[in-house]
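call fold(seq) -> tokens
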Amino acid sequence: MRKSHILAFVFAVVAAVWVASGQLGTDGEPEETDAAEATVGGASVADADEPVGVRVGQRVARARSRDLVLRGRTEASRWVDIKAETKGRVAEVVAREGARVGRGDTIVRLAMEDRAEKLAEAEARVRQRQIEFDAARSLRRKGFRSETRLAEAAADLDAAIAHVARISVDIDRTEIGAPFAGVIETRDVELGDFVEPGDVIARVVDEDPYLVVGQVSELDVGLLEEGDTGVARLADGETVEGRVRYIGSIAETATRTFRVELEIPNRARALRGGVTAEIRIPVESVQAHFLSPALLTLDDEGVLGVRTVNGDAVVEFKPVSVFAAEPDGVWVTGLPPTATVITVGQEFVRHGQTVRPIPEQVERAS
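ret:
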């Protein structure tokens, strides 16, 4: 019994010593770990004190305009269907289809028929009425003719003169001419045709200037003003330049768009009506920077911007807006006129961090 107590005591002492030795070994390892961590931390701190090198490049703002693009077609600035104002037979066709005429040039002549005889008769009647009026006025002065008879003679004279004027106008209307300079697009009568007042004789089209007509949406119509310069690209690739001469004030019911007319000089008579065209009208001009899309980034709040470096070599995040896009880059606004943009390494630095800027030309030279 006493022997078993002694063995139990021995085992208890051995266990206590073993536990104590394990505890001491454990206490040593954390000390080494803490020291290692301190060493690593010291190295990290040392590395953080050295500014990160980033490649930078100067970007200078340039004037950039945004174009309003419309689909349209060419159209004559004016045209008119010339109609007969008196009846008669077509006695002579002076101008053929496609001929260019000046203002007042004769296109068709109608037969005079008996108009010359009617004019001679009317002029003779005027002479008669003039003699009668002179006699009535002389008798009235002597008191042998009443005021009423004198007025009657004056009215007869005026009617005779008016009749001569009507016949003269009718004779003038036998020569049907162009109201303005242009080209004869169509001619609806031939030699020998009989026409009545209101019958179409020919269509005359004014060739200079010409129009390129498009439709602008109700959202963009406020961006345009009469007098704005625009460029139209025709279906054959030719480009022509002109000015906005008209902007519709009432939208078309079906499309809710407004008519826009671009007036194009056409002194060479090269433009024709009905040709498809693309109209570009600059509506806004700003100072913008042209950048590669790879230089754009987002901040922590999802704002689009560019990381730049100021004069103290500190990173600054500049919010920007995309003004226009091209196949090889984008135009952005929001940067100062001249900006030092980080071109390589922007993903490794943050706003407010001091860096070591390396100019692009130095990078390439090395």
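The chain is about 30% helix and 40% strand.
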